[in-house]
Amino acid sequence: MNINFAKRLSRDKEKIHYALEWGKGAGQRVSTGIFTYVKPKDQIQKLHNKEALLILEMKRSQMVLDRQALGSGYIPQHKIKVNFLDYYQEFVKLNSRKGNRHLSQSLNSFKKYIGRNYISAVEINETLCERFRKYLLDTFNGETPANYFSRFKQVLEGARKDGYFKTNPAMGLASKTKSNFKIKDILEADEYRKLMNTPCLNYEVKKAFVFSLYTGFRWADVKPLKWENVKENGIVNIIQKKTGELLDLPLHPIALEILGERKAGLVFKLPTADGANKLLAKWCDDAGLGKHITWHCARHSFSVLLQDNGTDVATVAGMLGHTTTKYVHKTYQRYRNTNAQEAINKLPSL
User: Fold this and answer.
1) Of 237, 243, 187, the residue nearest 220 (C-alpha)
2) What is the DSSP string of 236-248?
3) Cα(84)–Cα(120) distance, rounded to whole angstroms?
4) Model pTM?
5) How many other C-beta atoms are found inside a 10 Å radius of the C-beta of residue 46?
């Protein structure tokens, strides 16, 4: 294939701009962004011209290789990113889906694991992959280690197809979950009342937590909540921090009462997450609940009590901002003795 230099004189006639051309049809020319001086005035401009022509020749050679490699499975060396993190970052950018953070979080976790901003593809072998899997299992709970490692394997498989590896170095390693998942405590209906009737050292924390009990909001959603998110008809409209999904949720009268008169800016003036959970723990102790309650327990309580009162799982999932019922079935359901007794009573009797 013949690839030639196409020249174009600048308007002031002082520079020549270059493009690579392999035909006269549409799309058969590409600009290089490189120019030379028509009449170099000094040694600097002469040196510029010399180096520009060398770069042009290199670009032409690279394009010849690129076009010859099409369909061959061979990846020209100049296409390979020296830093594999650059490839990982680009893969995340091109393949991430809205509402799914696993791919981007796998990259963040891998960066933390290697502890530096550079790693070459040749360093990524089965041993490193196995150690990264162990790091994920030591760092995260539940399905998170498996989700992140699966995305890591997906990136390596993409890199294999792009010529970075002959075989996927993580191919033989299974994605593992961390089975020591602890079921969070929840608040029952009577405990809602106990808590609301008990003073809290920080009234803003009290208001925000009760609001979360009646909306299922995460800490990451209630802390930055602004008055502009609360519509006049009692609907809260937010983009969830964790999933990026839009949530429209009608408010219970108690949640509306907590909000009170409309203002501007943040709805709640809250401390840090750690500070809020410490205040919450003291408040729950003062109410005599005898449970380990964190902010996320409000979300679990909201879900379980809705289901106890007959709300179908699909509706609960939607009110929590999930696009499927998977997490409601797995995370936000509880075994109830009362439900078991009702089920037993439905068995036929003699």
Assistant:
1) 243
2) EEEE-TTT--EEE
3) 5
4) 0.53
5) 13
